[in-house]
Every structure is written in structure tokens, then in C-alpha cells.
Amino acid sequence: MSSHLQAHAAELAHGFSLCELAEGLGHLDMDGADDVLIMGICDDSRHAKPGYAMLCLPRAEGRASEFAESARELGATAIISVGIPVDTQLPSLHLDSMGQAGTLLRRMFKTEQAGAHLYGITGTDGKTSVTWMLREALSRYQQQPVWSTGTLGLMRSSDDIRDIGNTTPSLLTMHAMLAEACREHVHSVVSEISSHGIAQSRIAGLDFRTAIWTSMGHDHLQDHGGYGPYLAIKAGFVCDCGSHGGNVIANADHADIRERAPASSRWYGHGLSRDDVDMGWEQELPGMLRLRSRGEEVVIEDIPLGDFHAENVACVALILMVSQDIGLQELPELLSGITAPPGRMQDVLAGYGQVFIDYAHTPEALERCLRAARKLARNRLIVAFGCGGERDREKRPQMGEIAVEFADAVWITSDNPRGELPAVIASEIEFGMQKPYRAEVHLQLDRDKAIGEAVAALAEGDILVIAGKGHEAYMEVCGRRMPWSDAEAAEKYLRRKNSGTGLVSEGEDICA
């Protein structure tokens, strides 16, 4: 079941006077504020109601007064602004920082002493998989529901998933979610923490007791001013958690994480004989993982395919040991048979094992995905992928270079071109493919046809990876999101191939 949960407005369990909310936080304007009772809060003026306070955040600068007036016309009784001026006739509370706004929301939702253990997972790649696996493992261990938020939405259970709009949703949504979790007596909440969520303070006031840093690579650099600021944003989140006494779990195999994570971090890394990590891991066979900690070893069986998933499971293992005081010998029972989220090295026809879809949309993720797939291929490795429009352009030639280095055949196609021309994006991908190509390269900008052609090219022992979109159910073109599924397209063409029916016309071959 899927429903929507973006808390542009939330009712409170009981009312607060504006003065009560303002105590010790900010500057209160206008006489009569003592008599103002706040019964709810909204961060979108269209959701204002009588008795509600309108929360004006910094991103509303320039239009905050307009939004405040719209909220007043719908019955709002107060304005709460954060770091921006608001011209309003309503009683108003002016806060200097998002930190104060977070404290205010904890006060309003009565979650100052929230019992839920908040886990925050950041990193360029691996966030969604670690979040999924940790939720599943904690549910097994605690024998009760564990909630998670992230790319896939708010998961209260495997059949109760709610859309939250962004990987890390708005400040109000995060606090409303925590309040709901507290009412439901949920003991653990696992959240993906994106760079945008950190930079825009969408997690202000939330007390993360465990922070996890999974990886560091290239993504969203255009939004943060380059790699350095992007790295600093991630480091700031985990260091803040560590400085307040929280646990920090970090990946020792990334030099930048090694340098920037706090000294108190607990480390996991590839290799069983190393003495610089708290948890070492090795994968001797697909679907099996060996873990070593403090001289002891265990084997975890029946895990998702791919070295990167072995690393994700090792991360989850260390999180469980550190945050829940679980012994190494208890881990096989908790982690054997653990699953991966949709679109992460997902076998399109379960058990068929020839076509996989994966969300890999960064150079690092694509390389890891193709390395894993190479181990499964008895013959050729084929990849179909593209790059998103209006996103980090630096990664396009890098991903092209990786594709021809690790695959035997490559289909360059479209992937959420947004407002850019797909042909331009494809040419920038191709720019990284040094000639003569080390692989067979095709251009087919129609993603459906590209998948059909790649499936048609499959021979016995070949593996096809369709990368970039994973679980996404849309293709974004010129501001519109149109329905799309890599898995459905691949399954359609696989079934046609297996039944001997026709596939699609061939695309433009750009081999040298």
C-alpha cells in the first residue's frame, strides 16, 4: 500500500500559547501574543487553517510576506519566521536559525525526550541499501516494526510505504514523522540523510544517536559548489553526531572518510587480516559473506548478489554490534537471507539471472555494479545506461570511460534528461570513451528501444545490467514525469526473447 506523507501541515496534540513556544528561543512581536493559541503548524500557506502558525523558512526569502498574508486569509493566527524578515499583521515569532526551529518543533510535538533510536545514514552511494537492510535486521532483532525514511519513502512496514517527496524530506515532515513514531511506540527509526537535507537543515533539532557514512564519490556537485563543499557537508553531519556522544560508523576504504570522520568512529573495511578496522569483510563466493571482528569470524549466507551488497551487509553488522550491543556470533541468524531494496542489482526475472537493473548513477556506483556483474558473467557483460540532465556534468565522461573499461558491449541511452537534449548528454558520455573503443558501443536514445536491443543481443552466458534508474517509476523530460519502469521494459523484452517473438529495430551504431 502506498500513500502520501508530506507534512505541509500538522495538528498538535494540544494547543500552545505563542509566548509558551517562544520562551528562550527568539524575538516575539506584537501585543496580544499571550492570547494566541497555536493548534497546528504549516510550512505551506495553502495548508493554513484557523489556529495554525505559518512557518516561514529561509528558502521563502523574498516571498515570505506574501505567503504570510495568504496564510492569514485562510485563518492562520501567527507567523514563525526563521532568519528572514516578514511583514505581517499577525503576532510573529522571529527565530535566528534552523536549529532554533528544530528545537521549537520538538517542543510543539512533545518529542524532546523521544525514546526512538534515530539512525542517520549518509554517503554518495549505499544509503538506500543500508537503510533497507538495517530496518529489516532491526525488525528481526526487536520483533516489532522499525520505520525508515529515504529514497523509497517512509516505510512503516513492507506493505505500508508513503511518499515523502525527497530522500530527506522537509523539516516539518521529519518532525511530524518522529512524533507519529513516538505515538506508535516505535523504538528505532532509520533515515537516509542526503547532502541537500544537511545543507538545508531539514534535520535540525533531531537527535541522531547513530550516524553512518557509507561512501564518498561524485554526485550533486553542481548544487554544492564542488567536491570540497560536498565532502564538508557529509563530514559535518557525522562529526556533529559524534560530538554529541552518538555512535559513528564509517567506511575505512574511502580515504576522504578516513580523514574527515571523527576519531571516535567505528570502522568497517574490506579484508580479514587488517588491524585498522572494527569489522573486516571478505566475499569468497557470490551470496556469501565472511566477517571478522576482534579475532572472531562468522559466515553470513544468502545475502544479495554483488560485492557492494556484501559491503552493505558488513556495515549493517557493525551498526548492530555498536548500537544494539549484539555479539558477532548472533549476526548470522539476523542477517542470513537479508534482502536488497528494489532496483539494487535486482534480477528482472527472479532466478533467471541474466538481466539486472541497478540504481547506479555515479561513476563509483557504476564501477562497483559492473565489477560485481562481471563475476556473474560466463561470457560477455553488457550495460545500458545514461546520465541525468541538469545534474553533475563532470561524471558523464567518467561513466563513459568506466562503461567501456568493464563491459564488453555498451548501450548509451536517455536517463531523466529533464531540460537538456539527450543527444548532448550522450555526446558527453561518449567523450570519456577513448578510441579505439575497448567495447562494442551503441547509441539508442529511446530507452525502451535500447533495452530491447540489449536484451536481443544477449547470448548464453551473457549478463546485462541496466543502470541508472533502478526503482524509479518515471522518466523526467522537460519538467514532466512520465511513467517508466526499467524492470517492466526488461521483463517485456526478456519474455519476448524467450518466446521467440520479435523485439525492436536496431539503434544507431557508433562504434569506431
Radius of gyration: 25 Å
Shape: globular
Name the CATH homologous superfamily of the largest domain. Mur-like, catalytic domain
Mean pLDDT: 90
End-to-end Cα distance, whole Å, is 49 Å
- The low-confidence runs, each spanning 5 or more residues with pLDDT under 50, are 1-5, 505-512
Largest sheet features: 9 strands, mixed
**What oligomeric state do the depicted chains represent?**
single chain
Q: Can you characterise this structure?
A:
The chain has 16 helices and 27 strands. It starts with a strand and ends with a strand. Strand 25 and strand 26 (480-483) form a beta hairpin. It is globular, with a radius of gyration of 25 Å. The protein is of the alpha/beta class and 512 residues long. Strands 9-12-8-13-14-15-16-17-18 form a nine-stranded mixed sheet, with helices on both faces. The protein folds into three domains: 2-109, 3-Layer(aba) Sandwich (Udp-n-acetylmuramoylalanyl-d-glutamate--2,6- Diaminopimelate Ligase, Chain: A, domain 1), CATH 3.40.1390; 117-335, Mur-like, catalytic domain (UDP-N-acetylmuramoyl-L-alanine:D-glutamate ligase); 346-509, Mur ligase, C-terminal domain (Protein-Tyrosine Phosphatase, Chain A). Helix 3 (98-109) packs parallel to helix 5 (171-183) and helix 12 (363-376) runs parallel beside helix 13 (395-406). Mean pLDDT is 90; it is low at 1-5 and 505-512.
Describe the structure using short key phrases.
512 residues, alpha/beta, Udp-n-acetylmuramoylalanyl-d-glutamate--2,6- Diaminopimelate Ligase, Chain: A, domain 1, UDP-N-acetylmuramoyl-L-alanine:D-glutamate ligase, Protein-Tyrosine Phosphatase, Chain A, 3 domains, 9-stranded mixed β-sheet, 7-stranded mixed β-sheet, 16 helices, globular, disordered N terminus, disordered C terminus, EC 6.3.2.13
